[in-house]
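ok posting inputs for the guanosine-5'-triphosphate job
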Amino acid sequence: MAARGLGLLTSLPLRARRSQVQRPLCRLLSCPGTVAAALGREEQSLGSAETGSEDRTPKKRFSEVQKERREQAQRTVLIHCPNKISEKKFLKYLSQHGSINNHFFYESFGLYAVVEFRQKESVASLQNVTRTPSLATEAAVPFRSRYFNLKLKTPLNQTSEQPSIQCRTQSSPSSKKLFELLCCAESVDDQLNTLLREFQLTEESTRLRYLTCSLIEDVAAAYFPDCTVRPFGSSVNSFGKLGCDLDMFLDLDEIEKFSTHKASGNFLMEFQVKNVPSERIATQKILSVVGECLDHFGPGCVGVQKILNARCPLVRFSHQASGFQCDLTTNNRIALKSSELLYMYGALDSRVRALVFSIRCWARAHSLTSSIPGAWITNFSLTVMVIFFLQRRSPPILPTLDYLKTLADAEDKCIIEGHNCTFVRDFNRIKPSGNAETLELLLKEFFEYFGNFAFNKNSINIRQGREQNKPESSPLHIQNPFETSLNISKNVSQSQLQKFVDLARESAWILHQEDKDRLSPSYNQPWGLAALLLPSVANSMSLAKKKKKPASERIKNLLESIKSSSTENSTATNGRAVSTQA
Ligand code: GTP
Ligand code: MG
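and the output
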């Protein structure tokens, strides 16, 4: 999930420096991650809204994407392959069961193939010729899944002179490569877009995520036939980074839908069921049995933990073959709706995802976020903060949630557990923003905005798109967009918030300094986004002193410097004076 080891950037060679002059095309072509390299990257096949790439083609609704992907996953199998096989023979062998639409290989402690058949029946045909292994020392629990193991009958003959299989990478670039890419970029805008391109989920990773959900659904169906397991969170909201966790939602309401046929006459038939004292207990019991099932029978599911006393009960496990860390929840429909809302915001303007990815990477590089639960800001909160900031621009880049609600029609109406989660889902009904600010400006302004936000008295609220008085005393208050009485950042401590504020101010200062230095560039210095990902001055100082200070002397000096230069220049950016008040 994280931009691994970004702290290493300091020790790397500095290769390139931003120039105010346009780079020659040959330079661009030789630079990994620029337009030329991007052209070689995989294409996304299921609609541009899903990926946020250029918005010329019609954007697909979230529900359409989910439906198509789910159906695609049901026709797909996962095969653990011997290290050396002939791709041609492999495909020929599988084609006996029906035509293949798509396939790719990847490595994750072994070689795996993801094969999508044209027809669902092909999967059944393959299952029919598949045997349960007979093991010499252990016993196998028989389970007819869509996760297979391919063996070669005569390995030696088959492995000779085989061309090597082309594997699709499922990991983000190393910090060294990222640094090179950022330094090769044309401008700060180009840096943000490069980071997005390199870190966003690939087509293959997205397919594998839907397939993993589909495989888990097969296991859960042993208890709950007709259940659905849907991905949510960053795997589908368009803000997912390669390697992010896979949030899954066990949907049992679909079962309900099957039985809502019209009652005839004066009779109404109900299932005999066991009753439990509350919805929460029902959720815990369901997850408990599904957790047991995954642990005992789920092929490739390891390290199953049932975390049933959490605010939102879940089963956590690793899916070995895909390498995903999975969190399975149920009765969590609002989170699915939040994913849909974020997906819409991500698709409305191409700057949104670029900015969110950079802010998420920046936060991870400075340990503001963590994969371990704790008092840190979450990626979800950071995304909501970026959306809020973009709603506050003049003119706004993103509409408020209340405005999206006014555009909704009867079909969009959605009430979940008494909460009104209605918003328009048709992109055509939302006017594009007239705001043409650059990513560079937005990045700088984001840091200035939140470096000076009155967190002590104000709450962040994307429903209304304006600050509200904080209804409670948590250091950071970000209103849950749908359960409006809840704070999605209740866990964040005062010291973590202060760290965020200090780093935001420092980053604003770095970008501001770069603006001043433009006419006299100092060579061999990281610049723009690359400079922001370096270990912070404030952090290294506080580590050296091993003392916690609300704001280091250095930051105060930096702030003074911004203050004086903004007074000197008396510049107002986009009509808003640069303020440095805490
Ligand atoms: P990463 O996993 O960090 O990449 O981002 P994520 O957006 O997937 O976050 P996470 O896995 O923590 O949570 C998954 C989803 O659950 C989020 O996208 C939200 O839709 C929802 N969610 C997470 N935290 C909260 C919260 O505090 N309140 C509410 N209502 N929903 C949350
Ligand atoms: Mg997640």
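notes: The pocket of guanosine-5'-triphosphate (ligand 1) is lined by residues 1, 232-234, 237, 240, 244-245, 247, 334-335, 338-339, 378-380, 480, 483, 488 (CB under 6 Å). The two ends are 32 Å apart (CA to CA).
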